[in-house]
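## retry 2 of 3
previous attempt timed out at serialization; input unchanged, resubmitting
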Amino acid sequence: MTEGAPAEAERVAGGRERVGVIGAGYVGLVTGVCLASMGYQVTLRDIDAAKVAALNDGQVPIYEPGLAELMEEHRERLTYTLSLERLLERSDIVFIAVDTPPSYSGDADLSRVMSVVDELEKVAGADARHVLVMKSTVPVGTGERVRAELDARGLADVGYCSNPEFLKEGAAIADFLRPDRVVIGSFDDAQGDRVAALYEPLGAPIIRTSVPSAEMVKYASNAFLATKISFINEIANVCEEVGADVDVVAAGMGLDSRIGRSFLRAGIGFGGSCFPKDVSALKQLAGNSGYHFQLLTSVIEVNELQKRRVIGKLKKHLGSLEGKRVALLGLAFKPGTDDMREASSLVLAARLLAEGAEVLAYDPVVDGGMDRLKGVAIRESAEEVVEGADAAVLVTEWDSIVGMDWAAVRESMRSPVLIDGRNALDPVEMMRLGYVFEGIGRLPAHVDVPS
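## retry succeeded, writing output
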């Protein structure tokens, strides 16, 4: 829908709230499109003119399965604009979904959040009908800071709630429309009621709490999941030393209802836009409050070292990596996304290049056009990237990569060293095919290997 449509004509029958979203990035775009699919009129605002133009042309700037189709299906309820004033005219509840990247100090950078408050003060139109809803991940205390700034700038009538997002890249639409829970923190119950009403059609549990508690739920959730990953990776490393199989260990652990099966898959560490940033931010928040969060310090350290263990595995089989050709299978931090933030592939590529290796890479979605992949030769197919390689590392467990013809891959490699960084392949089958194979914490399989 173009910017020229009358705002009043877009009110949904029955007086439903109109929704605005500030920030058309990953969280903002998914939030807006999903709310449109629920029947709400949604206006998304971004400061990037090229992005807004692309969205108005029907182009999706991120890779997320199903998002393009949902956006097209509900395009009549979606409007994209550069103007905050335009968004305020067309909205009652306004989600803030801007980036909060880590600063040099380790704290979350709230400059984009506070710039929204600055703009609201300067742009006419914000009034008592508007409730600001924080979707961005922000440190505990941010809501109180924003509330105080709104009051000081003559915007005391504008409401404020915290509504953290729990979207997994690659499954974000399902996570939004079928959530485990919806968390809403508010200073005023009536404003919280309005936000809760948006989500009631989803039938999910809705947790109503204070703003600081809602902010902490997000950080605590991600920190706990990251801790489970680092814990099982530590167990995997011990398994390699004592001859146990981490997959069996994790399965046995996961059947305990107190532990659960999720996030007990050993690998080369977590990445992406949330876990590394949020764990570091919570650790920093605790430190700023005078508390040393020792557990999170270890979680971060284990995650960094886990990625580098792959280099040791390669050296064990190849000796010096100088001049060796190493193929990286997958670049994105996980399947189902093109997100390269804190991806393990970046660390692996940098370390391999520092060791003097020739690094080639393939990903079915990531095109590799970024400064941090300088020196890495990007290939157009998985088959092409492994041709003539001295070793291959499975970095991202895309179905298309896991399902390759591994017998043919073996024949095309110069030497058959294969490191499964995601424990996605069958060790017995890989060794039968003639690979010198290593997973992460997997029990070496004793099979007849063809010469």
